[in-house]
Amino acid sequence: MDYKIQLCLLIWTGSVIADQVCYEELGCFDNNYPWFTFFRPYPFPMSKEDVNTTFFFSNRALNVQNLHLLGHSLGSHIMSYVGKNFTDPKIYRITALDPAQPGFQGRNPMIRLNKTDANFIDVIHTDGRPFLPFLGLGMTVGVGDVDLFVNGGKWQPNCLLDGETFYKSFFEIPKITVAILYNLATCSHSRAPRYMAAAIKEPCHMWAYRYNAQTASLRWTDFVIDDSCDAESCSKMGMDTPQLPARGNFAFETSGTYPFCKFDPEADQQMKRILI
User: Fold this and answer.
1) Which is the catalytic residue, given 77, 125, 189, 205?
2) β-strand pairing of 146-150 with 120-125
3) How far apart are alpha carbons 260 and 117 in whole angstroms?
4) Residues 45, 36: contact at Cβ < 8 Å?
5) Which is nearest to 90 in space by CA: 121, 60, 61, 112?
6) CA 262 to chain CA centroid, nearest Å
7) pLDDT at 190 over 80
8) 15, 73, 188, 190: which is the annotated catalytic residue?
9) Measuring CA to CA, how many Å separate 227 from each of 28, 40, 210, 221, 270?
10) Cβ–Cβ contacts within 10 Å for residue 202, how many?
11) Beta strand 234-237 with 120-125: parallel, antiparallel or unpaired?
12) In 10 A of CB 69, how many CB atoms?
């Protein structure tokens, strides 16, 4: 029987739905090891040797060619460390849910997620703004076989600063609370696992269109290269992403509430034969 085994490490999900899908439907496990500390002198959240030991301890006798790793934020890079330990054969797939930007973007591929870490890597971008001054926590550039920039990959609907400033004058700055700042810093970042959970659980297909992520601005819809959907120009979020032949950068739009998906009947019609 051909089956895939999912190993999931989620950090800062902030979502009961995302956790439920991960643990109940995918068979993932929770790992509360303190992977990251500001006092650690190295960029690795944990040594590769320890990751390898943890991996084998929890997943003995697995065929890595059937292994699908999912990680959120720092978890994306931790999963890449596991992948780097397997080169012949490689791990089947890594799904990186808004991989962490600070301390990783622009660094050597050996200490961050890289497309060579598995046979297939898909990346979900939801919070790709500069860390300073905009508190963006996710990587801003494509690092996988398929990179999906949801709503342009910078701000997510119904998160603070969704197209508007959250204060209108200098005198309103004192009204900014710690809760507002926390939500500003984490809302878009935590959407990635929620989107993936909805893509797995719900019947709506999240079709994505070719996207020029290098030049996109806040008006991200202006940088969709091709608004048609066929085998070479369209991808989608979910478990069946590797089945689609298109590779590169893609973008699509969501709503601001669960299940987030906006129905695209034209794309459904054009792509249904490929997913059979």
Assistant:
1) 189
2) parallel
3) 30
4) yes
5) 121
6) 19
7) yes
8) 73
9) 36, 45, 8, 10, 13
10) 14
11) unpaired
12) 28
pLDDT tens, position by position, 226-265: 778 888 899 999 998 999 999 999 999 999 899 999 998 8
Q: Is 73 a catalytic residue?
A: yes
**What residues are paired with 218 via a beta bridge?**
none
- Residue 48 and residue 177: Cα distance in Å, rounded? 39
In this prediction, residue 222 carries a pLDDT of 63
Tokens of 153: 């990959």
**What would the pLDDT profile of 73-87 be if each residue is shown by its tens digit?**
888 998 898 888 888
Burial classification of residue 41, based on how many CB atoms lie within 10 Å of its CB (0-12 exposed, 13-18 middle, 19 or more buried): exposed
Tokens of residue 19, six digits:
């956790």
Token output for 107 = 């660094």
Catalytic annotation, pick one of 68, 76, 77, 98: 98
Region of residue 168 (phi > 0: left; psi between -120 and 50: alpha; otherwise: beta) = alpha
Number of residues written out for the chain: 276
What per-residue confidence (pLDDT) applies to 56? Answer: 58
Give the tens place of pLDDT for each residue, 99-142: 999 888 888 888 899 999 999 999 999 998 888 777 788 999 99
3-state secondary structure of 192: helix
Token digits of residue 24: 């109940």
98 counts as catalytic: yes
Ordered DSSP codes for 157-171: TTSTTSSS-S-SSGG
For the segment 142-158, the average pLDDT, to the nearest whole number, is 92
The letter for the amino acid at 90 is: K
